[in-house]
Amino acid sequence: MYNPLPQIHPTANFTPHSLSSHNPHIFFIHQFHQNLKIPKYSYSSLPYNRKTLFKTRIKCTENSDSNPAKWERLLPKNIISADKILRSIAGATSSPICQFISSPTTFLHTVDPRIKLAWLLVLVVLPARSHIYMRFGLITFLALLSVWIQPRQVWVDQLGRVALLSGILFLMLGLGADSMPMVVQSRTPPPSMMGLSAIPSSFAGYSYLLFKLGPLQLTRKGLSVASTSACLTFTIFQSASLCLSTTTPEQLAFGLEWFMKPLAYVGVPVAEVILTLLLSLRFINLVFDEVRIVALGIVSRRINWQQLATMETVEVFFTYIRRIFKNIFNHAEQITQAMNVRGFRGDSKLHKIYFSSTSSAAVANVISIMTLVGLISAAVLSEYMLS
């Protein structure tokens, strides 16, 4: 007769995060024959029999304290990751904001570069001096002109990013300009204490406060500041994009030199400024290409970012930036060597710069000047009639 042998049926208690439980309890469950009825997680006294076959297995359960809270489960995850950032950079348009697009030839390609520079100056000044309706009219005009002039793959990318930036700036300035009221204490007592009648309210329906949502409020001052800043941001970026995509660097240098010639009589180094501008317009294209190509090289290696620690991810980004600067400096050295081979010795006055010989169309120039005069007149009339 065999003596009863007490047996313990344990389970294994693990958590998904090793830091949440430093001392996990490991138990074992004996799986006996189906006819044997043994309560789970209890002691049992069974006769020891060699014919009874059983297997030992580990059962893993999860602690209730490891479950995330409801608000944590509702939060979106992996919105900003290293892989998404590099893929967005690598998938950016191959025609950046300073890239000249030679084809298809459009109306702006045949306009004189000096008229384009005058347009750029007017589009910078008008948003600050025109009415709010005129500002939104300028945005609509530039958006339609971009859709008409630029190829679809270019204006979809650039117009969307500039509109998003301007929209964020409009909301931040519009809702934050007067959201914090100033504490102002009047030096004179109220009219009721002096025996005077109160100031009558306006009958014209004027209201300084336009919209209120909790602590945020949109006032007339906030609307004016937000519309001016958003319109100025949109016009600067989009007009520069239109001008640079339809004008070669040589044409821009020629137009700027024509405007700066009178400054040479007062000692301004016009030749050095024009040469610097020409080199900058040529060099910025290389910077855009290097940023995109190096990011494409990292993405093509298919790095498993989930297995990298935080410092390893930061190290990859530092390597990415270091490689960009190394390639840029190599390009700068090659440009310097090319200029030395062509006879440049540091004096811009002795170095001849050959500008583009492409002539502009007279009809396009006349239409551009008339449109510019009409835009200025409309802005002046809106300032007097709508204010």
Automatic annotation (TrEMBL):
<feature type="transmembrane region" description="Helical">
    <location>
        <begin position="162"/>
        <end position="180"/>
    </location>
</feature>
<dbReference type="Pfam" id="PF02361">
    <property type="entry name" value="CbiQ"/>
</dbReference>
<dbReference type="GO" id="GO:0009507">
    <property type="term" value="C:chloroplast"/>
</dbReference>
<feature type="transmembrane region" description="Helical">
    <location>
        <begin position="132"/>
        <end position="150"/>
    </location>
</feature>
<dbReference type="GO" id="GO:0005886">
    <property type="term" value="C:plasma membrane"/>
</dbReference>
<feature type="transmembrane region" description="Helical">
    <location>
        <begin position="192"/>
        <end position="211"/>
    </location>
</feature>
<keyword id="KW-1133">Transmembrane helix</keyword>
<dbReference type="InterPro" id="IPR003339">
    <property type="entry name" value="ABC/ECF_trnsptr_transmembrane"/>
</dbReference>
<feature type="transmembrane region" description="Helical">
    <location>
        <begin position="353"/>
        <end position="381"/>
    </location>
</feature>
<feature type="transmembrane region" description="Helical">
    <location>
        <begin position="262"/>
        <end position="284"/>
    </location>
</feature>
<feature type="transmembrane region" description="Helical">
    <location>
        <begin position="223"/>
        <end position="242"/>
    </location>
</feature>
<protein>
    <recommendedName>
        <fullName>ABC/ECF transporter, transmembrane component</fullName>
    </recommendedName>
</protein>
<keyword id="KW-0472">Membrane</keyword>
<keyword id="KW-0812">Transmembrane</keyword>
